[in-house]
Amino acid sequence: EVKLGATALAGMDERVKSNVLATCRASLSLWADPLVEYATSWSDFSIGDLVCAEAPVTFYLITPQAHADRLAFLVRVFIRQSVNSLMEHEHYDSRRRRKRHRLLLLLDEFPKLGSLPFLENAMGEMAGYGITAHLVCQSFNDVFSKYGDKTPLFDNMHITATFATSEPTSIEKVTRRAGKALEMRESYSDPRSLFGRAHRSTSQSEQQRYILSEEDVRGLDDRKQFLFVNNTKPILADKIRYYEEPFFKARTGDYFHGVPAAYEQRPGAADLPGPASIDWRGVRAVCAPPEPFAGVRVPKPRYSGADGPAEVPGAPEAVLAADYLTMAPVAALRADDDDGSL
Known about the structure:
Elements: H1 2-10, H2 14-28, H3 34-39, H4 49-52, H5 68-86, E1 103-108, H6 117-122, E2 131-136, H7 140-147, E3 159-162, H8 168-178, E4 180-189, E5 201-210, H9 214-218, E6 224-229, E7 235-238, H10 246-252, E8 302-303, E9 310-311, H11 321-336
Parallel strand pairs: 1-2
Antiparallel strand pairs: 3-6, 4-5, 6-7, 8-9
């Protein structure tokens, strides 16, 4: 294929060839970044591990906000390869391993990735392959700007959660999604007569109205949300804030009681699929602080001056006394390790 492509390129007109080369350079310029080249040069897991490993595996793909636009193409490539690989077979991955777990594809602020036509087309078939998509966006306009107002993305959503908003398009979509209801309304008429005597007539009729008004959507309490589930009437639900719930607080809190654990991201210390080595609800630390940590004593600093930096024996010169309190457990771990590595 490479030879055929090179032969076809060599036989092109110079003007056409220059356009083709410019397109190729623009598409491949991202890989000129040494960090991107290194990050994509090796992998210590396969996509099938997400659904075929003995223990469930979570893969986090996070890009710095300052480089989000530049790396959006790389994220799109990864998502497309992952979805295509997991949708090759209903019960097996690309290596013929049986699928053991379902997969949650959580894309936060997914409109920032640009248009994903493959995801739009696969939304209706993902469930059959054990994949559930959870898409998060700021407003309907964010989606319409990338996919158009006729996108079928919302047609394949089983559950839709919305919060208070002041954006007109989103308000209209929410009120229409809630639907209409019938209510009985009375009307009165007071006919006038020549002598001032008349009888008021009353009539009743069924009228349609939207269940939610614009004021209901705009003024929704910050602790509430609307849930729209297929085959179910609209639900007014309470928000669950992870930092207020004991279960989630236990997962986000520090396992080592205020002492930061030491983590390292490198091939030799990667968090490979498999049972967690410590009982931390599925989170694995590379190493743990010494026991008991309360017995670790920090040397008293020697001050070089009234306002000057503190000097700590055995600590790097650039580390101040205040920083040494945070780095003490890491330094102790390195001292106990035979090979000097984490």
